[in-house]
User: What shape does this take?
Amino acid sequence: MSDTTRSPKKDEEHGRNYFFVTHEQMMADIAANEYLEYGTHEDAMYGTKLDTIRQIHAAGLMAILDVEPQVTRVLACVCHRLHVD
Assistant: This one.
């Protein structure tokens, strides 16, 4: 499940559809390298935290990411950093 800085739409719930976060919180988490991928779409930010992926893997499941093309650059950098660190 992704984080987003946009407001919830009708019938959306925090923790069920998205994790709704402030722009400031998302920027702080990006600076702390907590996101596997992130990007902007229609004036809102979206991203998937590394801890979310870790929780999915800990449950014995596989995470599948559906990302915008612009995110592949960020994703490649993060994956390289994880592999090297």
In short: The beta strands are 3-4, 19-20, 35-41, 44-49.
